[in-house]
Amino acid sequence: EASADGGTRTRLATIPDALPLPASEPALRIDGTGAIFASALFRDAQRSHELIVADVIWPAGDGEAAIARQHGGWLPVAPRAGVATYAVSRRSAGRREWLVLLEDGKVIFSGSPDEARPIRGAPSLPLALLAMAQMTYLLTLDDDGLPQLELLF
User: Disulfide-capable partner of 42 in 18, 22, 31, 70 (CB 3.0 to 4.6 Å)?
Assistant: First the structure.
């Protein structure tokens, strides 16, 4: 973040008792007021099968971060990678989606966190998730190795 003197500064937030998912990509957005929004995926440090979704908001200017720690569901097997993203549509600004790729090749997704489901293509790593106004897509590779956007429900 740029500071008043033209330099940059780092703003931190701590998610207690949480361990980041492996190969996890956080989401970041800045709204029109300059507030900074971040979202990231974690495992609970005590209950390793519990998925934690942490949302952090830093106000424009100075101020402490507001942290919301949410239960994201249960990981049926170990996670391989994770990703969070914000919708790119102005109509859905601020809508956050996430996805976890599990070691068995299935995924759990914010739209259906209690159901691990297979995906058609091979996931592209690092994971890339695209949230539009209403639909969300995962970048995968088809049988010929070509990129495709796979619709998530």
Answer: 18
